[in-house]
C-alpha cells in the first residue's frame, strides 16, 4: 500500500455461514432447543474452535489471484491502487474493484454493502487509518483514551494498559512512560496512586493524542533500524526514507528490562536491544535484502569478531546470522530516536562523589564485618543458635542478621550455616501446608483481636506443670506464653488472662479460641459479657479455625526441643522462646511482632559491644571492609569476647534460669567450614538426652 493513493474496503457478510460443513462433521454441531429438538448445522457456525482459522484460510486461498492489490484479513478485503502506465488512480482502482467482484461472484462470497467503503483516500484497518500519507491512529480510540477517568484499582489499570499497549507502536518511549504504572501490577504490590503514576497516566494519553503519522512499509525501499538501551528499558524503531528522502518511522517498539536483564553489562544490554528490534521487525526485515542497524555503542561493530564470548552471546550471534545487515555507529547526540525510546529518566540524577561515599547515615546502623570467617561464624551463632534467636529458619535468620551486620554474600553464608545446623535437622519436622476453609477477618490494630489456646502433653517440669497457655495477637502476631498444670481451671485461666494480657494491653474486642471446657465455662461467658468482649469459638472438631495459635504451638514445640536439655527444664525456656518468636520476622506482616507493636527493634545482647563503642566516642558504626583484621574487630570487641567464651569445647556454663547451654560438645564441628575455614561451630548442640523428644498434643 505504500505507493497507493486510493482505497476501498469490503466487508464479507455471514462469513462463517458461507462455508459448508463436511458431511461427516455435521452431527458434531448438533444443538438442543427449548422444544426438545436437536438441530444440526449444515454450514459452519460461530463458536467452533477452528472456525476463524478455517474461514481466513479459505478467503486467502480463494482471493490469492488478487492479493497484490486486494489483501484480506478474515472478513475484510482492502483494495488499494496507484496511478500506473499512464492511467489515473481512479481508472486503475475501477479495474481492481471489477476483478475482485467477479472473483467473489465466482466463489459465491457476498459483501455487506452498508459496511463497504469505495474510492476513499483513507480506510480503517485493524484499529488504525491507512491512507496515502501513512498510518495514523483512529480518532475514536484516541477519544476513548483522552476521556479515560483516573484509575482507582488494578482492574481499571489493566483495562487502560490493554488498549494503550495495543496502540503503543505510535508512541515513542512507551515502556519508559508506563513504568510507574506497570510497577502497580507486580504481585503483592499495594495500590497507591502517586504523583508519578498520574504523570505517567497523562503522558501516555498525551503521547497517543500527539502520535505521529507512521509511514507505510515499502518493500521496494531499504529499511534501517535504530536501537538503544538504558538501565531500565530497551527500545527500537523501524525506519525508511520516503520518496523525498525524509526519514520516516514505520514502527515504534520498546519494553522494560526484566530484573535479571538489568544486571547485564552495557555491552549485552545494547545487543539485547538489537535482538529485540530484529525479532519485532522480523516480518519486514527477514529476506528483504541488506539493511543497516544504527547503534550508539561503538564496540558492537566488533562483537562478532571477539574470540571470547559467553554462551548467551553465542546464542544471540546465531540469531543474528539469519539477517543480512551491517552495523553503523551513530553517537548518542545523533541517535535521538533510540535515546528517546530507552534513555528517558524517571528520576532526578543524584551526583555521587567522595562525600556521599563516606557519609554516615544515622538511620542505618549496620556493622560491616571484616573478612574474618571465625568472627562471622560467631555472629551467625548469636542470631541462630543463641536462646534469644531460637533456631529460626534461613529467611528469618537472614533478616535478623542483616538488621545489624553486613558482609559480602551474606545470604549464602546464612543458607549454608542453617543447612548445617544439627539441632534444626534433629528437632524440626518436614514442612507441610494445608489450605484453610476461610480466613478470619483481619483486625485493624494491635491487641484488638487475640487467639487463645492450650498446649498439653509436655513432660512434667519441676512444678509438675505439663501445659502451656498461648496468647497471640492476631494483628502483630506477638505471643505470650505461660506454663500451667493439666488441672488448670477456668478461674485460674481468667487470672492468667488478666496477668498476661489485660494489665499490659487492655481488653481485646474479640477472642478466638477452641471449644475447650475452660473457654466454654459459664464463668468465662459471664466475665466477657460484663467486660463487653466477644468470645469466638472455633468450629467443632476443626482446630484449623484457630490457626493462629495452632501455628504458634507448632513453632513452640520446635523451640522447646532446641532449648531444653532435660525433660524438667522446658518451662524455664519459655521466656527465651517467647522472645525468639516475637523477634522473628512474620511472613504475613514482613516485620517482627516487636516492631509492629513498638515501632522499634529490641536491643540484642550481640549489639552491646557496639553500643559500648559508640558511647565511648568511637565514631560511626559503619566502617569499611578490609581483608585484614583492623578497627572493625575492635568495634565489636566486647561482643567478640563474650562469644569466644561460647566457642570453647566442652561443657562450661549453663544458664539455669533459661536452660541455654553455652558451648556443650562439638557435634556440629564438621559442618562449619564456610569459605575454606576450619573453625568449629560453637553453640548449644545438645546430646541425645538433651532434646525434648517426647511428643505433645494441643
From TrEMBL:
The keyword Secreted does not apply. It comes from the Eukaryota. GO terms for molecular function: catalytic activity; nucleic acid binding. Keywords: Multifunctional enzyme. Residues 625-652, 661-680 have a biased composition (Polar residues). Residues 610-698 are annotated as: Disordered. Residues 437-601 form the Integrase catalytic domain. Gene3D superfamilies: 1.10.340.70, 3.10.20.370, 3.30.70.270, HIV Type 1 Reverse Transcriptase, subunit A, domain 1, Ribonuclease H-like superfamily/Ribonuclease H. GO terms for biological process: DNA integration. Residues 1-165 form the Reverse transcriptase domain. Pfam families: Integrase_H2C2 (PF17921), RT_RNaseH_2 (PF17919), rve (PF00665), RVT_1 (PF00078). This is Integrase catalytic domain-containing protein.
Amino acid at each position: 500500500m505504500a505507493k497507493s493513493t486510493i482505497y476501498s474496503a469490503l466487508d464479507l457478510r455471514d462469513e462463517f455461514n458461507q462455508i459448508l460443513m463436511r458431511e461427516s462433521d455435521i452431527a458434531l454441531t448438533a444443538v438442543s432447543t427449548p422444544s426438545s429438538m436437536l438441530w444440526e448445522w449444515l454450514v459452519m457456525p460461530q463458536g467452533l474452535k477452528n472456525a476463524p482459522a478455517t474461514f481466513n484460510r479459505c478467503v486467502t486461498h480463494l482471493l490469492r489471484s488478487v492479493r497484490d492489490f486486494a489483501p484480506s484479513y478474515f472478513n475484510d478485503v482492502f483494495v488499494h491502487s496507484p496511478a500506473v502506465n499512464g492511467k489515473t488512480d481512479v481508472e486503475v482502482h475501477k479495474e481492481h474493484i471489477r476483478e475482485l467482484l467477479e472473483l467473489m461472484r465466482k466463489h459465491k462470497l457476498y459483501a455487506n454493502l452498508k459496511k463497504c467503503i469505495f474510492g476513499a483516500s483513507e480506510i480503517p484497518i485493524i484499529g488504525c487509518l491507512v491512507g496515502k500519507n501513512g498510518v495514523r491512529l483512529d480518532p475514536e480510540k484516541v477519544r476513548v483514551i483522552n476521556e479515560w477517568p483516573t484509575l482507582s484499582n488494578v482492574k481499571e489499570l489493566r483495562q487502560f494498559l490493554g488498549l494503550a499497549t495495543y496502540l503503543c507502536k505510535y508512541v515513542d518511549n512507551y515502556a519508559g512512560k508506563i513504568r510507574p504504572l506497570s510497577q502497580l501490577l507486580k504481585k503483592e504490590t499495594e495500590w497507591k496512586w502517586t504523583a508519578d503514576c498520574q504523570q505517567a497516566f497523562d503522558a501516555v494519553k498525551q503521547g497517543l493524542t500527539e502520535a505521529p503519522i507512521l509511514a507505510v512499509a515499502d518493500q521496494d525501499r531499504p529499511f534501517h533500524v535504530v536501537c538503544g538501551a538504558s538501565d531500565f528499558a530497551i527500545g527500537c524503531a523501524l525506519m525508511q526514507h520516503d520518496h523525498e528522502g525524509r526519514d520516516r518511522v514505520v514502527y515504534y517498539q520498546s519494553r522494560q528490562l526484566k530484573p535479571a536483564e538489568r544486571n547485564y553489562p552495557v555491552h549485552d544490554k545494547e545487543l539485547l536491544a538489537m535482538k529485540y528490534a530484529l525479532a519485532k521487525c522480523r516480518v519486514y526485515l527477514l529476506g528483504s535484502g541488506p539493511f543497516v542497524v544504527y547503534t550508539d555503542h561503538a564496540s558492537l561493530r566488533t562483537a562478532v569478531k571477539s574470540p571470547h564470548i559467553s554462551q548467551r552471546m553465542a546464542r544471540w550471534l546465531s540469531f543474528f546470522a539469519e539477517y543480512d545487515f551491517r552495523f553503523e555507529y551513530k553517537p548518542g547526540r545523533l541517535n535521538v530516536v533510540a535515546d528517546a525510546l530507552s534513555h528517558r529518566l524517571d528520576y532526578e540524577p543524584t551526583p555521587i562523589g567522595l562525600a556521599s561515599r563516606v557519609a554516615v547515615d544515622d538511620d542505618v546502623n549496620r556493622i560491616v564485618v571484616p573478612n574474618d570467617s571465625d568472627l562471622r561464624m560467631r555472629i551467625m551463632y548469636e542470631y541462630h543458635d543463641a536462646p534469644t534467636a531460637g533456631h529460626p529458619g534461613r529467611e528469618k535468620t537472614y533478616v535478623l542478621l542483616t538488621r545489624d551486620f553486613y558482609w559480602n554474600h551474606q545470604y549464602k553464608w546464612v543458607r549454608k550455616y542453617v543447612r548445617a545446623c544439627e539441632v534444626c535437622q534433629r528437632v524440626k519436622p518436614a514442612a507441610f501446608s494445608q489450605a484453610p476453609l476461610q480466613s478470619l477477618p483481619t483486625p485493624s490494630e494491635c491487641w484488638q483481636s487475640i487467639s487463645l489456646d492450650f498446649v498439653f502433653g509436655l513432660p512434667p517440669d519441676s512444678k509438675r506443670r505439663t501445659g502451656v497457655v498461648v496468647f497471640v495477637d492476631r494483628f502483630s502476631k506477638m505471643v505470650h506464653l505461660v506454663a500451667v498444670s493439666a488441672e488448670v481451671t477456668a478461674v485460674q485461666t481468667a487470672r492468667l488472662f488478666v496477668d498476661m494480657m489485660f494489665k499490659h494491653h487492655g481488653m481485646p474486642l474479640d477472642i478466638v479460641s477452641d471449644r475447650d471446657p475452660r473457654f466454654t465455662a459459664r464463668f468465662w461467658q459471664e466475665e466477657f459479657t460484663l467486660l463487653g468482649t466477644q468470645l469466638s469459638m472455633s468450629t467443632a472438631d476443626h482446630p484449623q479455625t484457630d490457626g493462629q495459635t495452632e501455628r504458634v504451638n507448632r513453632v513452640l514445640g520446635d523451640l522447646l526441643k532446641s532449648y531444653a536439655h532435660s525433660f524438667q527444664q522446658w518451662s524455664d525456656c519459655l521466656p527465651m522462646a517467647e522472645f525468639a518468636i516475637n523477634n522473628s520476622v512474620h511472613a504475613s506482616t514482613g516485620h517482627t511482632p516487636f516492631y509492629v507493636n513498638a515501632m522499634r527493634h529490641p536491643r540484642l545482647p550481640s549489639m552491646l559491644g557496639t553500643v559500648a563503642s559508640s558511647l565511648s566516642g568511637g565514631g560511626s558504626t559503619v566502617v569499611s571492609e578490609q581483608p585484614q583484621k583492623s578497627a572493625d574487630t575492635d568495634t565489636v570487641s566486647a561482643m567478640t569476647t563474650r562469644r569466644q567464651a561460647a566457642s570453647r569445647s566442652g561443657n562450661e556454663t549453663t544458664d539455669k534460669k533459661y536452660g541455654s547451654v553455652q558451648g556443650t560438645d562439638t557435634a556440629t564441628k564438621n559442618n562449619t567450614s564456610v569459605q575454606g575455614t576450619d573453625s568449629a561451630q560453637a553453640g548449644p548442640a545438645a546430646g541425645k538426652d538433651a532434646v525434648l523428644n517426647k511428643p505433645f498434643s494441643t
